[in-house]
Write a structure and sequence with these properties.
128 residues, alpha/beta, five-stranded parallel beta sheet, two-stranded parallel sheet, 4 helices
């Protein structure tokens, strides 16, 4: 499930999410925005691109302020790639990725997509 809205109140409630669900929360990118019920983070595995930034302006700001989770419980996605033990522990676990946008990561992902598309002979290159 992916959320990409400017909402300031939870759109996805904890009781509506089934075990094993993965959520990408992209819309909460400034203080006061919220797409997910803070209770959803209870027992979930939470990931983000940058914990300090997301704690201030991302989706995790709300469960942190509510005392549902602590910043040290949130795993930076880069660390989970380096250490597989930080990834999903259980097929029934609810996992949440809170993306606040890190330009360097965005550029690396875009470059990888470009390289793979070129290798596979797909896509259209547009010169600007």
């Amino acid at each position: 499930m992916v959320t990409v809205t400017p909402s300031t109140k939870p759109l996805i409630q904890a009781d509506g999410v089934q075990p094993g669900t993965h959520l990408n929360a992209i819309g909460a990118d400034m203080e006061g925005k919220q797409e997910l019920d803070a209770k959803l983070f209870q027992g979930a595995q939470a990931y983000t691109d940058d914990v300090p930034q997301a704690s201030e302006v991302g989706e995790i700001q709300n469960p942190i302020k509510a005392g549902v989770i602590k910043p040290e419980q949130v795993v930076e996605i880069g660390n989970s790639l380096l250490d597989p033990t930080l990834g999903r522990h259980d097929a029934n676990a609810i996992t949440i990725f809170d993306s606040t946008g890190i330009a360097l990561q965005d550029l690396a992902a875009a470059n990888l997509a470009f390289v793979r598309a070129k290798e596979q002979g797909v896509g259209t290159q547009v010169d600007l």
